[in-house]
Amino acid sequence: TETDTEALRERARACLTTARARTTLLTTCVDEPDLTAQHSPLMSPLVWDLAHIANQEELWLLRAVGGREAMRPGLDSLYDAFEHPRAERPSLPLLPPAEARRYAAEVRVRALDLLASADFHGTRLTEAGFAFGMVAQHEQQHDETMLITHQLRRGPRALTAPDPDPAPPFTGPAEVLVPGGPFTMGTSDEPWALDNERPAHPRRLAPFWIDTVPVTNAAYQAFIEDGGYTTERWWTPEGWAHIRRHGITAPLFWRRDGDRWLRQRFGVTEPVPPDEPVLHVCWYEADAYARWAGRRLPTEAEWEKAARHDPVSGRSRRYPWGDADPAPEHANLGQRHLRPAPAGSYPAGQSPLGVRQLIGDVWEWTASDFLPYPGFRAFPYKEYSEVFFGSAHKVLRGGSFAVDPVACRGTFRNWDYPVRRQIFSGFRTARSEAA
Ligand code: AVJ
Ligand code: FE
């Protein structure tokens, strides 16, 4: 209806504006040399992300939707993520910070202009404002990427945010039984869901147990202290070879100090907080911990069933708490805190079966490779998802404290190499009921 269209138009405008406020903060809280420097070969200079955000907005909104000409010929190639790997980007003739800001602002003025009159019922790209939602999600995803760059950057603190509320240690049941049987995975009716989340399709799972809360630093420390990193049998052959080759003995950013662990976070060193979900572990570490604990990582389908399945109605919810958009009482999202909340936080955000913190706090590694759902169709470009399908990438679910609600849903799928740990990654474990 017309009201729905106007509500989506307003939502798109609000999401684009929220994203830009975040981008602006992340690119003005450090000096110019820090914007053009490469803080890690794994990451782009911040100024690349800024102009890439604008270039994608120009490509998908101004040109694909609006039919406009390129604003500055030559930019597309500089900011094409596939043409230039991250390590190469600092040596490109990138727009200097002031130019990148001007370009981003010019694109945005025109994009909002276009949004005001765009037909939301025309093509698949404009249906329900999809392209605008996609561009807002893209900017927020790069805002998370830029926050990772900030975490890797050395030097004094540049960003601050209030800490999450303290919470008493979680004393509920350690695990929850998810009944076997069918559930609906993925979505066909979430207007801004990306291609890899589609279509909705039935899955049948055996009953399984899943951790009520993400694995904490205290639990992970027990694995370390029990010789987890020096005991080959907990690791896959690839994982074992990887930690040996790179001398990995603890999560990234952890450092031993006498008999305690310290952690560096956004320019501040602090003791590792025991009740917080563990962060900055790679898939191999998550997998080894689970084996040590006599458990395993949940599959992607198990994670989604735990997060979305309502055993009373049998239907799948948008979020663990229901169909309402995320609010602060549901989950730790949107960089309003720069750390995960203590395990057991956000009871209002728990699933019908009582599983907590599935959304927000830490991305959760799953056992699954990133593969297309039955009936998958690449849209609007095959470089968004399709080129990444296969056994090289593992799926992460649920979103971290660094993810904005617009880029986080019960169906949202993230993926990365199993060695990655600069990302805001943690995990929870599971076991089959029969075991
Ligand atoms: C979905 C987070 C893996 O950062 O590579 C950004 C998102 N795609 N620009 C990535 C993305 C294109 C993507 N991840
Ligand atoms: Fe991108």
From TrEMBL:
Known cofactor(s): Fe(2+)
The protein's Enzyme Commission number: 1.14.99.50
Keywords: Iron, Metal-binding, Monooxygenase, Oxidoreductase
Protein name: Hercynine oxygenase
Domain DinB-like stretches: 16-146
Function: Catalyzes the oxidative sulfurization of hercynine (N-alpha,N-alpha,N-alpha-trimethyl-L-histidine) into hercynyl-gamma-L-glutamyl-L-cysteine sulfoxide, a step in the biosynthesis pathway of ergothioneine.
Residues the record lists as binding Fe cation: H52, H138, H142
Organism, scientific name: Streptomyces nogalater
Reaction(s) the record says it catalyses: gamma-L-glutamyl-L-cysteine + hercynine + O2 = gamma-L-glutamyl-hercynylcysteine S-oxide + H2O
